[in-house]
Design goal:
The structure is a single chain. The chain is an alpha/beta fold and 395 residues long. It folds into two domains: 7-178, Rossmann fold (3-Layer(aba) Sandwich); 188-278 and 299-394, Rossmann fold. The chain contains 13 helices and 22 strands. The protein has helices at 21-30, 49-56, 73-79, 90-97, 104-111, 124-128, 130-141, 167-178, 213-224, 253-263, 306-313, 330-341, 382-394, and strands spanning 7-12, 34-39, 60-61, 65-66, 69-70, 82-88, 116-120, 145-146, 150-153, 159-163, 188-193, 198-201, 204-206, 228-233, 246-249, 269-272, 279-281, 300-302, 319-326, 345-350, 362-369, 374-381.
Length: 395
């Protein structure tokens, strides 16, 4: 998930939790954001401006003036896409609520025209005090977002509520809430992902090398574009930190088919990215099959074609995107699959493309539309490929 190109102003105040801003800045810049930092004089007692400057790649502003140079807090407040105050101490929250302006963090806050996010950090008694709660309520009424606090061991040695959210939780909030897109707002999206496992006996199964990465990236991208997402997945080797994605776990092809057909009615767009087994054992042994000296014959039967079943019942307003992994006659086989399964799009993967395929973080695909258009996405991260696929479907 990415914050590529986002401009983030980080305000740091005097709290022991200020040490967490070092990993926070690193996570933000790693996600692609540009970070500018302002901090109070008291914050310097807990975290080094030099370290923050090193990781943000920009000077850290503490004073309104540094020699003959004026640090333009108004310009900074207008520059940012979001202003985060983390940690937000009890003292600073009270000043912000009452419009006081005696340091550069407060001046930047009052100048900001972007969304403001506050991450409180203090002892539990301070946090629960009526004066603090009144300040927080006032700040919410101004349109600011006040993040929850965590419970745990506090600087006082007591255990309770008041811990600032962890850096990864703050970044997750930015991605899932502050910068969540609107292209798919109001849309219901179904994504299938991962392999299926067809039992042979209690300890063995037939499957494939799919990890579910591509399908998971599609589910995340759709959610980040504003959609309500249902992910029907076989046994995955990847997870998502996005809690808003509804996940339905299945094991076999028949379980995936049942889940898909049960949910298709309410869906607007369906991405059939799972690597479903084409065959399953004709019978499942109730006991472990013992090794013998003789050759064994395994009888298989075809599994139902889930993509064809979905295509046969889809409504005019629904869009189905199929996926084809091919090793020969790639384009011809993909186009044939799109026509026979009655899909609106087909996404072709070729195992002959270096850097594409199961278990890798990169992919290269060719997208075909039933209307005749074609688009190639060259080797990129699977998250970027997912973005390309979603945008192509929406064109």
């Amino acid at each position: 998930m990415s914050l590529q190109g986002k401009k983030i102003v980080l305000g740091i105040t005097g709290s022991i939790a200020a040490y967490k801003t070092i990993p926070l800045v690193r996570l933000l810049t790693k996600a692609g954001a540009e970070v500018r930092i302002v901090m109070t004089k008291a914050a310097q007692d807990f975290v080094s401006p030099l370290v923050l400057s090193t990781f943000s790649h920009h000077p850290v502003w503490i004073e309104f003036h540094e020699g003959a140079i004026w640090n333009n807090h108004v310009e900074l407040g207008l520059w940012g896409d979001v202003f985060i105050v983390a940690p937000a101490s009890c003292h600073t929250l009270s000043k912000m609520a009452n419009g006081l302006c005696d340091n550069i963090v407060l001046a930047t806050y009052l100048s900001a025209r972007c969304p403001v996010i506050l991450a409180p950090a203090m002892d539990e008694d301070m946090f629960l005090h009526p004066a603090t709660q009144r300040s927080l309520e006032m700040l919410r009424s101004y349109g600011n977002t006040v993040l929850q606090v965590n419970a745990g061991e506090l600087a006082s040695g007591l255990v309770g509520h008041g811990r600032m959210l962890e850096p990864d939780e703050i970044v997750q909030h930015l991605i899932e809430n502050t910068f969540r897109g609107t292209k798919l707002t109001g849309k219901q999206i179904l994504v299938t992902a991962g392999p299926t496992q067809e039992l042979l006996d209690p300890v063995r199964y037939i499957s494939n090398f799919s990890t579910g990465k591509m399908g998971m990236c599609l589910a995340e991208e759709c959610y980040l574009q504003g959609a309500e997402v249902t992910l029907i997945a076989g046994p995955l080797q990847v997870t998502t930190s996005i809690q808003g994605i509804r996940q339905i776990a299945v094991q076999s092809a028949s379980e995936m088919e049942e889940a898909c057909l049960n949910h298709i009615t309410s869906m607007d767009i369906i991405f059939m990215a799972a690597a479903v087994a084409d065959y399953r054992p004709l019978s499942i042994s109730n006991e472990k099959i013992k090794k013998s000296e003789h050759t064994s014959t395994l009888l298989l039967e075809k599994t139902n074609d889930i993509l064809a079943a979905m295509g046969s019942v889809k409504k005019a307003h629904q869009t189905i995107v199929g996926f084809a992994l091919e090793t020969e006659n790639e384009e011809a086989n993909a186009l044939k699959k799109m026509k026979e399964k009655k899909t609106d799009f087909i996404v072709l993967n070729s195992l002959k493309d270096e850097g594409a395929g199961f278990g890798l973080d990169t992919n290269q695909v060719t997208m075909y539309a039933a209307t005749g258009e074609k688009k190639v996405v060259h080797l990129e991260s699977k998250m970027n490929v997912a973005k390309e696929i979603v945008n192509y479907i929406l064109e």
